[in-house]
Fold this sequence. Notes:
The structure holds two protein chains of two kinds. Chain A is an all-beta fold.
Amino acid sequence: QVQLQESGPGLVKPSQTLSLTCTVSGASVSSGRYYWSWIRQTAGKGLEWVGHIYTSGSTDYNSSLKSRVTISLDTSDSQFSLQLTSVTAADTAIYFCARFRGRYVGDYWGQGIRVTVSS
Amino acid sequence: DIQMTQSPSSLSASVGDRVTITCQASQDISNSLNWYQQKPGKAPKLLIYDAFNLEAGVPSRFRGSGSGTDFTFTVHSLQPDDFATYYCQQYDSLPLSFGGGTKVEIK
C-alpha cells in the first residue's frame, strides 16, 4: 500500500522560502512511471496544481508559480520536496503531496499540511 | 490554461437519492477527466478516471460520463458515507486544473 506524508513548518514569514518534504512508503520515487506532485488548496482558489517531478527527474510547474517553485527528488529514494521562494499571504494553503500515474491520474495523496504565511 | 466549471456548487439530497454533478471544460479535453471525493480534513480520493472508468475498490454506484467539453458525475442511491465535496480535474494539458467543487449535504 502506497502512503504519502507531508512534513515541514506550519508557519513561514513573508518573503522567506517555504520548504516541504513528502515521505513515500510502499513505492520508490525514482522508479516506475509516476509523477510526484504538489497540489495546494485554499478556500478562495480551491485546488491548485503546483507542479510535479517525474521519476526520471524532469519537472513541470504551474506557470503562475514557475519562477518561485522547485520540486526535487531526494537521494533517499523515498522522499521528494517542494521549495517556494518569496512567499506572501497568498501562499497560505493546505499543501498536499500526491502520486499521479499514467496521464496525470492522482491515485495516492498525503493527508495535507497547513502552511500559514505570516509575520 | 483550461478552466473547469463545475455545477452546482452545492446541493442537498437524501439517502437513496440520485445525485448528478456537471463539469464543463473551456476547451475540448477528449476524455481526460478525473473525479475525486473529499471529506473535511482529508485528502481527495480518486473515484473515476478517464471520464468513466471506476477506480479499483470504488462502489459501482459512482458513475462518470461525457467527453469533449461536457462531463457528468452521478451517484446512484446516495449513501450516508457519500456526503462530501466532489471535484473534477482535467489532464488534457498542463497546468492540471480542478473544478471549483460540489458540496453534497444532507437534506
